[in-house]
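Run Bifunctional metallophosphatase/5'-nucleotidase through structure prediction, thanks.
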Amino acid sequence: MKHFISRRNFLKAAGVTAAASAMAAAVPQASAGWLTGKDAAVTILYTNDVHTYIDNKSPKLTYAAIAALKQGYVDEGKPVLLVDAGDHIQGTAYGSMDDGATIIELMNEAGYDVATLGNHEFDYGMARAKAVIKEADFPYVSCNWVDLRTGLRVLPAVKLFPAGGKWIAFVGITTPESFTKSTPAYFMNAKQTKYIYDILGGDDGRKLYDAVQKGIDKAKALGADVIIGLGHLGVDPSSSPWTSEEVIANTTGFDAFIDGHSHTVMENKQVYDAAGKAVTLTQTGSYLANVGKMTLAEDGTITTELISTADVSDAAVAATAATWIKEVDEMLGEQIAVTDINFYISDPATGKRRIRSGETNLGDFVADGIYTYFNEIEQLDCDIAMMNGGGIRTDVSAGAWSFKTCKQISPFGNVACLMAVTGQQIQDALEFGARFVGPEGKENGGFLHVAGATYEIHTDIPNTVRTDDKNVWQGSATGTPRVQNVRIYDRKTGTYEPLDLNRTYALAGMNYTLRNLGDGFAMFDGAELIKDYVAEDYLVMSTYAMIFDGATEGMPVLASANSPLASYPGYLLDYEDPHGAGRIQVV
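Sure, done. The structure for Bifunctional metallophosphatase/5'-nucleotidase is below.
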């Protein structure tokens, strides 16, 4: 049964049980697409990081197109498998409005045979992640997700399929970054005093490598002829030591590896394993920009290609998608504002994502929305608002804004809260968020955009923040702080005053960051809660947009001069600059 927000509840808001068995993978019975006949080439179609982008138009790819591609092989009597490497139920309103239920329905109808969990499969909570696994007609595999209460894997590590006279095994792998790139609290007990689930990783990667090797060895013991990694790990340096390349290099036995997580377009890269054997590594990118096609030839040769368009479609799958797209668009399609400004998470000069390492006008806008909500709507005294860059998901072009626009920007369903914190806790949070910033730095979803504050990041000062093996904050910087000259806006004087480490401030943000250890922000543990669950992230943003001035044909116009914050003397505001108002200086 779907659990999605009704029109009535939406409008009101606006104004597996037990885990799957961890026993060894069962040998499946032959079914359409697997064909057990000997000496036949096998096709494996694969996707990753679809992130609920289901509204592509032909000839761009859709689940209906992928279903038809697979069925084409079945109709020709050719063995074929369809697999996914994670992050398929979260990303747009089409996923978040029913917690991924329709996405799983579409994947079921498309004929997926196996999938692994990405970090975003946990975004709706642990109970929902387990429910998704039960709703799927296909199995999920993960060799490194364990229940610490039993010491057992939550899911099977391996799934075998007979196809083309071979036994093909998939070893599932989930990124250990799931702790901080989803919500750490979901992996803890109800009181958030200890972890009850782990995604094995280890500071040096050894726990991950060992878990993967055990999965490979199990596949061999079960009689696999071909062993393929189905991982959500990626190749970004920021994911080290848990990248797919490092896993391959520290294990033996893979013939190929289908990857996800880093949104990398990688048709075929040869990576050498610990025994010096070349392993085919591939990834499709993201958002159904491509579907991968891996061919296992009769002689054992493995080739791959990426397909970006398809002029075929399965009518039933297309109908399911169209019905849901229409329903969501009707619920969220009401126009609420217009603008001549392009809002960015990327750098328009380079196209490179900037939101996780530097200030942007959209980062300012989202943080300002939280700050304004508590000061102007709730009529509470909010000193500063913070928003993690990883929670701001897409550029927005000039034009009309709707509720859907805001839902696309912030699709997670987090709720805003206000807490009483010390200046030291604010300093610790900014320092933690800025720990990777620099010319050779890496992205960080916990990079903090601010409203009612300014700060500097000194990249020549090394990071000395203390973290645990899951990158959760453990203590203040032990050396000179990288973040300096933090200033908090004083609404009475219209000036930015130096942060007082001993003073108590009212800090606003999303529960993900302030209460649920999201991105590893543990420094707020024990802070006094002033107000919680005021509104969902996209509704906070929508409310901000709707109270702008400068109405054109009854629509508020999103421009700096029209913001309610424009009446705050000396407040830094410049949405017209793609890089924002200069609140965050990287020096």
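The first helix runs from residue 7 to 14.
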